[in-house]
């Protein structure tokens, strides 16, 4: 519910700035409310199942998985609705932001990713945490994922491709949290290092390359 509420707040704030039509606002509001209601039903079903069957039971698992699946389907529907309504407002502005960085070189992209890997290894060695490929500060997977996402965004300058690659980077980072290999702090530091170094290197290549 906390995640859904945060997402709802972000969307509503965006709606205020983008000045959508009343009909579009109503559709977005209904989508948000449907996700929140689905999550509440999911919680209610889980509570009842735990009350009736405290021990593990295959039918209890099916009930919980189905309820969670309903939330996922509702969230996907809300995401599609949000994209269809907000894309025409957000995408052109995002395209303008990407265009501000200009074109980047292929060599700059390769060099930036290599530098990110080297910096990650150096930082892990300096902090004495984890190994080059596992754990520690920062998350190497998050750093490389966001480095690639940043490079792809600036190379293509296509808003949709940029958002999809950023989504993949977020999924890679989230997987490190699910596997309990990294903390949220380590993932955020990794993502910041990957994005910042890539932006810096690509800008240098654009000016001096």
Characteristic terms for this protein:
209 residues; Helix Hairpins; 83% helix; flat
Topology:
Layout: H1 2-18, H2 22-52, H3 58-99, H4 106-127, H5 140-156, H6 159-178, H7 184-208
Structural class: mainly alpha
Count of helical regions: 7
List SSEs in N-to-C order. HHHHHHH
Shape: flat
Number of domains: 2
Between the first and last Cα atoms, what is the distance in angstroms? 48 Å
Total strand count, please? 0
Strand percentage: under 5%
Radius of gyration: 21 Å
Summarize the structure.
With 209 residues, the chain is an all-alpha fold.
Overview of the structural elements:
The protein has 7 helices and no strands. It has 209 residues and is mainly α. The N and C termini lie far apart (48 Å).
């Amino acid at each position: 519910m906390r995640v859904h509420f945060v997402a709802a707040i972000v969307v509503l704030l965006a709606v205020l700035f983008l000045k959508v039509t009343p009909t579009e606002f109503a559709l977005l509001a209904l989508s948000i409310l449907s996700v929140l209601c689905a999550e509440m039903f999911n919680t209610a079903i889980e509570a009842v199942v735990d009350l009736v069957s405290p021990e593990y039971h295959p039918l209890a698992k099916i009930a919980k998985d189905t309820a969670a699946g309903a939330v996922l389907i509702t969230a996907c529907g809300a995401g599609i609705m949000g994209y269809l309504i907000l894309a025409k407002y957000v995408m052109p502005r995002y395209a303008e932001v990407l265009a501000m960085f200009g074109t980047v070189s292929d060599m700059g992209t390769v060099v930036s990713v290599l530098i990110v890997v080297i910096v990650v290894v150096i930082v892990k060695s300096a902090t004495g945490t984890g190994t080059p490929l596992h754990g520690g500060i920062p998350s190497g997977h998050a750093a490389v994922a966001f480095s690639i996402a940043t490079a792809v965004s600036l190379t293509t300058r296509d808003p949709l491709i940029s958002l999809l690659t950023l989504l993949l980077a977020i999924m890679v980072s989230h997987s490190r949290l699910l596997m309990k290999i990294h903390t949220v702090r380590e993932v955020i530091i990794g993502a910041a290092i990957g994005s910042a170094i890539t932006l810096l290197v690509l800008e240098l290549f654009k000016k001096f390359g």
